[in-house]
Amino acid sequence: MYSLRWFLTPAIASFGVILLSQLPTIAQNQSDVTGPNVDPPLNQSDITGPQPIEISPIDLIEPLETEEPSNIIDETPPEDDAIVDNPNQQQPQNNSTPNNSIENVPVDNDSDSAGLPVSDGNVVPENPTDFSENPQNNSGEPSLIDSTTTTANSSENIDNIDRNNSVHVETSRPIEASILDAFFGDKNTELEVDRQRYENLVAQSDIPTTLQLFEEFYALEFSNFLGIELFGKVAQVDEIAAKLYEMWQVTGKKAAFLYISSYEDRLELLLIPPVPPLDGSEITPVSRLKNIPKQQQTIAQGYLEEVISHSEKHVIPNLSSEIVSKEIGLFQNAITDPRKRGSSQYLPHAQQLYQWFVDPVDPSLQEKEIDILVLAVNQGLRSVPFAALHDGDRFLIEKYALTLVPSFGLTDISFVDFRNSPILAMGASEFSDLSDLPAVPLELEEIANSGLPTDAFLNEGFTVENFLQQNENKQYRGIHIATHAEFRPGALSNSYIYFYNNKIGLDRLRKITDRLGWNLTTTPAIELLTLSACRTALGDPQAELGFAGLAVLYGAKSALASLWYVSDEGTLGLMGEFYNHLQNNPLKSIALQEAQLAMLRGETYSENGLLHFSNGQTTAWEDETKSQQKFDYSHPYYWSAFSLIGNWN
User: What are the C-alpha distances in Å from 536 to residues 64, 476, 479, 541, 562?
Assistant: First the structure.
């Protein structure tokens, strides 16, 4: 698969026109296509780091705008928020959309596997690494919140960012793409993608080829938008099933991959579950068959056929992306509209989307006892609050932990228990031109009190200079940022994050993380990057790419972010629950699921000026409108906005 930390060189390829005339030859003869390199990132000798990035002080910081953006909405819940309809009450189905039948695509298990990609790599289990750093202050105790910076003055530090101090590691070959790579013309010429021909190709393909098409197209889509160049190899269906099985053995939790693609004339689902080896034999995917004994080739071929037999491809015909997009918009609006927050008007839309996206594969997920559902979706679907989909009895989050990924190949799935490793928590509660976030100090304090070793900095301590200095002085494995952030339409530079008195474009933030070497294979990865108060332009393709590509962009294995601004106390409640559960369970997706369930079940609530958590702990929270009455956060507005992106382990 592609390396997660190869990026930060400008993309050399724009999408080109798919040459459909080459399709039959390429689809049947893929001998030049190689499978993914699934060795641990630090052992991928053929995958190297970024080209040098020049960092200018002017590039890093953008002055705050003096006018408050008009699209910042007041997230104060209405007075009747405490009255929430029973979400389990059966609602009438939305009849505005067609009742499409679900079509199972037959699988040709007798297809010639000799045409499948070949590689000389080896599948190696990624053993978890124990990082036990426990940062302490001078008193010997973990650091709590520090509202002052420990750096020198601002201008001095910005000027001291040495543009010659960037790490330069020679890059290797670009991604060894296969099907789509041959369809693109001159990669230095910007051409338009022929989406219709690509969609037709997907419709004609069997499970292995469909999987490869999804992986390649998603990777190229993110590469093009994020401005990164990919290195590595393309994942194949048996390799994905094998890796899912390996991680099941490591973590004790079963994860399944679900690809969801919405097209002009249909919706397609592709499910890849974990598949154990046959008769206890060692797993050798077909893409590794080069120069191995014939007997092992026979075993590998048998494993491939076993994977295909357990995988599923479903097509819902006559369900256009326009219909799906409209239903998603109604769903999002019903959840986020403050006037509807005391009702369950979202439920018909939640059930309709569940019927399309999950219902076809749910019997298999239940039969296989899947714990974690990993979602790789295409344009228009990346801002769906999947946790709030509803089967008529339960929310999806009540059945599975959820993770959104750009693709399998763009995700480092290795497991590291980083609970004893340091976390850097920074945030701002006061803004000159945006609404204040008064709960941020309590949010940082909750993280520090969760038992996870934390260094926290508030307001004046949350500067670009101090962010750089703290990361250069200590190897953090978790980064938590509590401040306003926006994923906006258009180029990545249109989106931003607010430091204290500084507004940083997401493209400029990438230069900061370049400076820190987050993307290099020579440094331990950032296990989790959290943005607790961000908002995405729902339904906009570029904004969705920025949101779903968050972990890829900055070299983090996982990112936790919100699709819309959640109320201050709601964010405090969910983040407190998440870090408390993370202390007890090292799997990030499971910790987020437990946090969302605590909110949904009313175990997190405010009453008499206190915010109550599911573990019995409380924190003072003065909210004049609800301080004397019990108020819970069971409505999906409060918990479904938060999505884990990337590594689910």
Answer: 20, 27, 20, 10, 8
Q: What percent of the chain has pLDDT over 70?
A: 67
Cα of first residue to Cα of last residue in the chain, in angstroms, is 17
Per-residue 3-state assignment (H helix, E strand, C coil) for 421-448? CCEEEEECCCCCCCCCCCCHHHHHHHHH
Most confident range (mean pLDDT) of 52-56, 104-108, 232-236 is 232-236
Q: Phi and psi at residue 304, in whole multiples of 5°?
A: -55, -45
203 token code pair? 């419709």
All residues at 6 or more sequence positions from 491 whose CB lies less than 8 Å from its CB, including other chains: 507, 542
- Residues near 319 by Cβ (< 8 Å), separated by ≥ 6? 98, 100, 262, 266, 267, 356
Residue 94, classified by CB atoms within 10 Å of its CB into exposed (0-12), middle (13-18) or buried (19+), is middle
Q: pLDDT tens, 421-479?
A: 899 999 999 998 889 999 999 999 999 998 899 999 999 999 999 999 999 999 999 99
CA angle 498, 499, 502 (to 5 degrees): 85
3-state SS class at 486: strand
Q: Are 504 and 60 in contact (CB under 8 A)?
A: yes
pLDDT over threshold 80, residue 168? no
Decide: helix, strand or coil at residue 262: strand
Residue 322 identity (one-letter amino acid): E
CA distance 614 to 576: 10
**Which residues have CB under 8 Å from 536's CB, separation 6+?**
383, 486, 487, 543, 544, 546, 547, 563, 564
Quote the CA–CA distance of 400 and 579 in Å, as a whole number.
19
Distances (CA, A) of 236 to 1, 216, 281, 428: 9, 11, 20, 44
Model pTM? 0.75
Q: Show the CA angle centred on residue 579, arms to residues 137 and 428, nearest 5°.
A: 70
* CA pair distance 379, 391, nearest whole angstrom: 24
pLDDT (tens digit, 9 = 90+) per residue, 200-231? 999 999 999 999 999 988 888 888 888 877 76
Query: Among 97-111, 435-449, 475-489, which is the least confidently predicted range?
Result: 97-111
Taking only the tens place, the pLDDT of each residue in 325-349 is 999 999 999 999 999 988 999 999 9
Question: How many Cα neighbours within 13 Å face the side chain of 45?
Answer: 1
pLDDT the model gives residue 61: 39
Taking residues 558-581, report their average pLDDT.
94
Q: What is the CA radius of gyration of the chain?
A: 24
Residues constituting the chain: 649
**Phi-psi category of residue 227: left, alpha or beta, with phi > 0 → left and psi -120 to 50 → alpha:** left
- DSSP secondary structure, 503-558, as one string: EEEHHHHHHHHHHHTTT-TTSPPB-EEEEEEEEE-TT-HHHHHHHHTHHHHHTBSE
Residue 326 tokens read as: 């409209």
